[in-house]
User: What shape does this take?
Amino acid sequence: LYQKILLYVKDPIDVLLGLAQLKLLEKDFIASIGYADSILAKNRLHIEALLLKGESLLYLKEYERAHTVYAALMNQDKSKFSGLLGMGKLFRKQKKYDNASLYFSKALDMKPSNVEAQFYNTPIDEVTSDRFIFQLIKREKEELQRLYTWAHLYVQYGYFQSATLLLNTILESDPEYYPAQILLAETYGATNQYGHAIDMYKKLSAVFL
Assistant: This one.
């Protein structure tokens, strides 16, 4: 399905980015890094490619290489915020929580309204509580892109119930919000709700295939 969607993309760099994202979703991290490196060979400071490479390196526990990637991002004004977040994730993966909190806090100072910065600066018990989720829906109900970003973070860390609530809220507002449909299908699959997942993929296939 993702490969079919990429057929509509004309820019070669965007195609490589899409393939890097696809392989990251498939957890084929070596392949994702390969596509990111193809972009970086042409532009060694390409922000999106660096971010994708950094994320794959984190999954592979290639922490020194990931540190180099996030340091490069922090050294660019346009990507300093992303570099700070990435460095926070790196230290969090290494269970160096004090260091992680320092970088996450600096990122929040730069962009107080950013969803990722808010997520990483909120204690897990709070950010996954029903009270927090319902307040989030009430506050962000008209901001579908922000809700989607929250949902994506919950899926990333395995908080599928919270993600499902947010994704269904998005689709109630906009039934054709395709990124939410795709993520909800993945969430159903991850939680063994295969009937729901198949139904979602059938709907998406009717649009893109």
